[in-house]
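Input set for joint prediction.
Command: fold jointly, output tokens.
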Amino acid sequence: MPAFSSRSGAVAAARPDGAQAVTAGAGIAPIPLRLERVSVSLGGPRCALCDVSLEIRAGEQVALIGPSGAGKTTALSVLAAALRPSEGRVLIDGDDPWRLSVPALRALRARLFLAPQVPPLPPRQRVVTSVLAGRLPRWSLAQAVRSLLAPSDAAAARDALARFSLQDKLWSRVDRLSGGERQRVSLARALMSQAGVFLIDEPLSALDPTLSLHTLEVLSQTAHERGATLVCSLHQVDLALERFPRVIGLRDGNVVFDRPPSRITGEDIARLYFNRDAGTVPGAPPSSDIEAAGAIRPGRCF
Amino acid sequence: MNSAQATVRGSAAELRDPAWKTRVTLALLALVLLWPLLVASEFRPWHLLDAQSLSASGRFLASFVPPALGAEFLALVAQAAWTTVAIATAGLALAWLGAVPLTLLGTARLSQSAVGRPMRPLPALGRQAIRWLLIFLRSVPELVWALLFVRVVGLGPTAGVLAIALTYCGMLGKVYSEVLESTDPAASDALLRNGSPRLGAFLYGALPQASTELVSYTIFRWECAVRSSVIMGFVGGGGLGQQMDMSMKMLAGGEVATMLLVFMLLVALADRASRLLRDTLA
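tokens >
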């Protein structure tokens, strides 16, 4: 594996393996991700992620689906170098983050963006500040302080918000926003960062079906424009199958399937979500053909 | 019968609160420990109410009325109060200058090396060293620091300022760290995970959540500094304390009463300022 280290994050380079990598401006280099036999135990008796191997190419767009507690959030955290696996190896842009020095690890993290499911926004902060915080990794302390006093690039923050139809909330306080608005503000922060990988944990959990579709479209389009890799965990199976060229099904910390949606059957989905206690899967198609999988209506969440 | 029904019919043991036993044990343990503490501290509240104590404290308090209100004395008190406020403010400002960097370095919340894994040994040791330094600074009473500094810089307010600076640096550093660590970690964690520098995560993640508590604690400490500057006045630190010492030695209860009223005024002022700032920041 060729060691490719542009730790400053400012160097855009054409990558031999980045087939889809549109080398965008603004210094975003597409970043491939790789998990090699990764296990994570979070203290419980079971592993949150059990011996998982994955390869995500630079610029690829992947959806992670699976029942609650399947390990989706853990997988995203590991891919974001935010959680050290108990076993196995993670390679981000060819580097094992956990072997890097602390400053080099921070520089690597600045090239990844992990958006947690619950928007991590301080309630008393203004939206403009929350969005501009996406720039922190590249700012000096002086710039950060200055922007706290007078927002340094309000126009960019407004543009990022406008992609989620929230431009009129630029000067509002976070605690005046609804849950869905907060979720989109945290996604606007993701756009503000110059990350080459977007790892987004359930971006649609507080959104209505129409907004979900629109939001997912913005994420996927932005990632495509920038040549950034996009990994999204979703509970909206229909949207995952409809919008992503590759869908990974996780259950009990294991990869159940990992293929394009055209090769995922209704039975695959039913098996993925089968709940012994609940007995049935709501709306699970009984047949195992592709049409049945397609028959899951938009807006239905598992 | 499926497993869900089995759980519902499960024995009463499943419904017993697992925390109950621990709570009862801890409560009993607290009582058992409290008893020798009361004995050691000679806790005999009924002594307060016997005839001799009542008449002694009555005489002392009676001498407080009326408060001394002579123009000359009031001018003296005003000047002493100004010195006291100056000692407290300067001491607290110095303490703050020391406490802020120690907090930012010491709080585990802002650790870069601990993101996603246990903290590295070197940063952990560094943070422990800062904790020890803060313990050292605040465990020496400001009175002892003052007695020390009086020997170095001589009688006067400077000794009081330095004493407050050292002890309060230890207190502010400890409580600032704890306030930061008691806020919701999500905001600062998310920023650190995305590669923000430590101070960026502090300014954009932790500070907006902790600002009111930090301000209110700082003003409360200013209030405490006013009071402790009085104690240091008794050992030659200047200000109201020194005046009060003299008045007490002369058994001039009215003068003491006037100075106590000035204290109440200062504390009420601090209270008001704290309320105002909290409202502004909230």
